[in-house]
Fold:
Amino acid sequence: MKTKFRILTVFFSLSLIGAFGFLCYFFDYQVLYKDYPANTASLIAIPFLNIILFAGIISILWLTKKVTIKESEIIVNYIFRRKQIIYQTKDLIGFYWDTIPSGISYKRITLKFKNDRKVRFSDFETGNFYKTQDYIKSKFKICTKDGKLANSEQILDAYNQSDKIDRDQILSIRFIIIILWAIIGFSFVMLIKANNDNSYISIPHLFILLIILMVLVLSIAKFYSENRRSKKIKDAHNKPAPSR
Structure:
């Protein structure tokens, strides 16, 4: 089993880097080469934006990885660092779920090894996270964060926590999508007002309109995808336990 990159995260990261890169270029070029008057705001913005830009690039270069899970070993490849770490599955104690602290409860799996070694990946950067999660659940045992195998009560709590993380994430994503729809509606109205006096739409406004429509279509697809995931979780939760 091998983890895959999440396309949305790649697009989001590249967009942020592009946005901050453009702002850095604008401020740096205007102030350093165009004799733009450097006020207090620009003197604060220039180092701040440059720090964020380079920190983001370094984080991507340092942390981007793929995890390959085999019968006898778990291989972690840091793509840009050209570094590979191999863990033996015989040293694996188990796994547990938690979240990445952020506005959205991104679900994370931690593989806990002896000597307090860990391998972590989340559904923020992993495109096939849930397939990988199912594979891990079928192969390995659940453990606690302090590296002890979970008892039956702790296993039940872990699965309940996993379901709760999924439900909280779905609610957060739905809320963000609804806010996004409000912004899209406002942007569309402003675009119409800007073209009221014209018999045709300008090229820049047409470009903006296409972006709005693309974001709208993607957000609708994501909303229904989260609805299907919510139904799947409810069905799995309501399924009667197998008889022993």
